[in-house]
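Quick start: what a row looks like.
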Amino acid sequence: MEYAEVTFTAYLSAAVISTLLTITYLYQFWHQQRGSAFAVAATINTFHLAAIALSFSNHHLTTNWLLFLECLHYNVWVLAIALSLRKHSKQQHFPRSLQILFGIGWPLTALIFVFALVNNKTIFALTPWFALSLAVISLVSVEQLYRYAASNDRQIKLLCMNLGAIFIYDIYLYTHGLIFQGIDPLLWQSRAAVAIATCLFMALGGLVPLQQSQRTANFNISRPIAFYTTSLIGVGLLITSLSLGGYYVRLYGGNWGTVIYSFVLVAAVMIIAMVFVSSSLRSRLSVLINKHLFRHKYDYRSEWLRIINYLAQPAEASEVNQRAFFAVASTTKAPGGAIWLLKQGFYEPVYQVNLPRVVDLQEEPADSLFCQAFLDLEWVYFPDSGDNEALSQNNHLLPYWARNFPNLWLIFPLIVGEELVGFMALTKPVDDTALTWEDLDLLKTIGRQIASYLKRHHQADQLAEGKQFDTYNKLVAFIIHDLNNLIAQQALMVKNAEKHKDNPAFVEDAIKTISNSVDRMNNLLKKLRRDESDLVKCLSMTEVVEVAVSECRRNNPQLTSSIEKGKYTLNADQVRLVMTITNFIKNALEATPTGGRVHVTLAYNNNRAVITIEDNGSGMDWDFIHNRLFKPFETTKSGKGMGIGVYLSREYISELGGSLNVMSTVGEGTTITISLPLNKMD
């Protein structure tokens, strides 16, 4: 009695949920969102479930009528599926496969209807065969609809999934009945639960407004679900193997059976624990699942062709870094970031975009552990990796500036061969920022391509500079040749002047003038010689700065200085060192308008001389400082210079083992800081 009550309640509940499904389809039909076939099919399904419920009460129908409704509900679902398929595929006739199915299903249902009218029970023995055949036909129809129509309609795909679940369960139910010569009561009772769940999901799918405008309906298993499902399947297979092994050991193990089985069980538990505890094994399993159970995230062929075409387009020297950045940003959808390239033993920021003005991008030493991880491991830093140990294991190497970088997403290397050309930092994109193995592999591949692109342009710039220097050297050779001729002429004039002793005033003035010219030209020749080791002397740092300031102070009242006294020395060429300092002072004076201020400071700190040149002139922008200021033959002084003064000054500071830092703001001024190593004091 209890079984009948539970079954009655279950099927009655299924009929109520099916009524809700019918109302949903009627609502869609009323608003012309779906045809009437599904509403009819849902109605017949409701009557079918209600009839089964009544069969467990005092108002039950005859078995033939139940069998007729059983077959009828299969056929109406197939009819609704066929009409929907014809609508989505734009065919005027049913597919041939469905025509064959109709040729079997409807005559069979009509035959059962006739037997139900005459109340003939001879058909009852064939019930499982009839129902199984119709369930198979229905499942094939669902497969046809899923293949041809579900890709453009999410509700159709949801419908196919639920109808497929119903028909698969029915196939199992009737196959089990044929094997065991009778329908299992518990399976028949569970059929109501399947009906409740599937009808509920179909009704909710119809009530939720799903967009159907040219959007592909993709129901994909998430990677975490796939990972844990795969793990559970593996554990399940292991447990099944243990069960079979235990059964075998129990039959044939004899006295050693319990010992052997206990050993195998403990070993299996240890294997399971090792899989779940070991992060490396779980990481490898995750990568294996992502690579073999999911489609690739990127179309690598199109990505590769797009980047090649983008980088192959002609670009000005000032556009190279910008083009390299946006080639990466177009793939990663990163809104901003910066590029660092190797210069003078440091990785200097050469390009930035969409970053706040307050961001202070700093240099990174080439020998830092942060950069070494790029080269040794081709590592991609992901600062916001959370609890992901695989991605965050080297985050402790991140420099201080990276920790203050707003919305920093990742930093990846730019490598050519075995050389780290630089690295690139990207800010977080608007969409999902989770990284997979595909993202990392693609970033490394793009990084190598971008590095090759930047290095090629850098080598082209070096070649152009070399040609310019070659031209400059030829010009200098001609100048030296002319100067030698001039010196010879002037020397001859000095000798010939001895003949004009009768005019002492003329002779004395000529000798002084010519002698001074000879001295100046000889000094110039000394500066143009390659070997200048004889010019390097031990110099007083204080005197060098005082000489440089005094040379620039003539008719420049805005120049002030604060020079710390001390007996600090360094080994250098006095002329070149004074010229280096005066070059920066003169540039500051030229950039400072009348009434402005240029101040030179000399201080000593940790056995280093620190020279600071500050002005409140026009200033320079970030791009000019990093891409034009130290570029040879680049000058803003039209017709007044060759554009190599600042370049030569920086090179000489580097030769002395010093460093140069430039800080400037447009409209506010510039601060030049020169740091030079001093000789150790006795």
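That is the whole record. Residues 2-207 form one domain. Residues 437-496 form the longest helix (60 residues).
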